[in-house]
Amino acid sequence: MQNSEGKMTYKEYLLVLKECSPYDFCEYSDNSIDRRIQKIMRDYHLTMDELIHKTRNDEAFVELVVEAITVNTTELFRDPPVWKFIRENVLPAFKNRPKINIWHAGCSTGQEVYSMMILLHEAGIFDKAEIYASDISKKALENAKKGAYKYSFNHNKYQENLNAAFADSVVPKITDFFEISKESDQLIIKPFLKTKTKFVRHDLVKQELPFYSKFDIIFCRNVLIYFNGGLQSRIVQCFHDNLFPGGVMVLGTHETLNGFFKTKFAKKGPVYSRTNTFHFKY
């Protein structure tokens, strides 16, 4: 199907991308897909016909398209009230438990993962944690593993977010967790944090989970917002199935649950706790 001018639509282009790659973005929301494909075409100065030809004949370009579609904005301790809530209301329950399993789904370049590890360290439960982080983007995962971020871009914002996340408490020193190189303009995560997490390339939409344990906390922030309703429901069901009873799911600040999922999770502040209840009215 084409539009009234006989041109392929952005949604139809996704079928071409699906044919030429292992990726399926057909259930991403129309608005987010349209914006991102338009940007790709502008950035590479391509018409739709040229975009299709390049997708069918250039594997390296396909990876660039995937990176552009899945780009996710993140920063250290983004949305500080969420981290403050986790620090004060979620982590204390794990002080007397032998282990805590955590999964960051759609971890992007890793700032969220390292933010959580800093909380774990300050709560005295870092050594108990088994941490997994996954993303569809090869480039994002490579950057996450490096744990190196621009000093000039991140330092002041990171300090501001850190102060807010640890309001009413002792604020950790940046140098406890980062090596600072002003010459190379880098904040570099220290090795004891960098080697803690198992980073895995994973397509949340299509692939089976590469993990063999359930989780106490699952992060998936600012990812669901790019999916249509049906796909959102399948992903949330996946998280529910892979959380321990009472486990916590952390979504983005603009992401909410609808329908019967409101009965399967109890909202507590900015996070969702897995319940075992079910109401047939949904």
Descriptive labels:
282 residues; alpha/beta; Rossmann fold; 2 domains; seven-stranded mixed β-sheet; three-stranded antiparallel β-sheet; 11 helices; 41% helix; globular; disordered N terminus; CheR_MeTrfase; S-adenosylmethionine-dependent methyltransferase activity; methyltransferase
What would your notes on this structure say?
GO terms for molecular function: S-adenosylmethionine-dependent methyltransferase activity. Residues 1-278 form the CheR-type methyltransferase domain. One of its GO terms (biological process) is methylation. InterPro entries: Bact_Chemotaxis_MeTrfase, CheR_C, CheR_MeTrfase, SAM-dependent_MTases_sf. This is Chemotaxis protein methyltransferase CheR. It is a single chain. Helices cover 41% and strands 18% of the residues. The protein has 2 domains: 10-69, no CATH class; 80-147 and 191-274, Rossmann fold. The chain contains 11 helices and 10 strands. The protein has 282 residues and is an alpha/beta fold. Helix 3 packs across helix 4 (59-70). The chain is globular, with a radius of gyration of 20 Å. It has helices at residues 10-20, 30-43, 48-57, 59-70, 80-90, 111-123, 138-146, 151-165, 191-194, 229-241, 261-264, and strands at 100-105, 129-135, 148-150, 178-181, 186-189, 197-201, 215-220, 243-251, 265-268, 271-274. It has a 7-stranded mixed β-sheet. Strands 3-5-4 form a 3-stranded antiparallel β-sheet.
